[in-house]
Amino acid sequence: MKRKNRTFDPEFKRRAVELLISGRSFEDLAKEVGVAPATLWRWKEQYLAQAAPGPDGRSAEDVYEENKELRRRLKQLENNHEILKKALGILSGPTLPPSMP
């Protein structure tokens, strides 16, 4: 059975891409909106290519890549913070009283 090609209006595509840019994963968002992850990726590329540069002169794609890197770095720092909290809990646990002579 051949699959029927569906068409989506530009507003639907724009909203899907904005959700993607806000940090949602390709796979989860693609399932939610009912398209393939590759389709969602293509919509994102088209959206970023058409977006006008921001007030600082950077392209939307540059801002997207920086945002992705910052999210990755934040996750890494949060993991490091959790490790340090656990280590502090272990090291500041109850101490044994000094032995009596």
Write the layout of secondary structure elements.
Elements: H1 10-21, H2 26-33, H3 37-50, H4 60-91
Helix pairs in contact: 1-3, 2-3
Helical fraction: 55-70%
Structural class: mainly alpha
Name the assembly state.
single chain
Number of helices, counting only DSSP H or I runs of 4 residues or more = 4
Q: Assign the CATH topology.
A: Arc Repressor Mutant, subunit A
Strand content range: under 5%
- How many strands, what sense, and barrel or not for the largest sheet? none
Net shape: elongated
Number of strands: 0
Distance between the termini: 87 Å
Query: What is the CATH top level name?
Result: Mainly Alpha
How do the helices and strands follow one another from N- to C-terminus?
HHHH
- Rounded mean pLDDT score: 85
Uncertain segments of ≥5 residues (pLDDT<50)? none
CATH architecture: Orthogonal Bundle
Number of domains in the coordinates?
Answer: 1
Explain what the structure shows.
The protein has helices at 10-21, 26-33, 37-50, 60-91. The relative contact order is 0.07. It has 101 residues and is an all-alpha fold. It has one domain (10-84): Arc Repressor Mutant, subunit A (Orthogonal Bundle). It is elongated. The protein starts with 9 loop residues before the first helix and ends in a 10-residue tail after the last helix. The chain contains 4 helices and no strands.
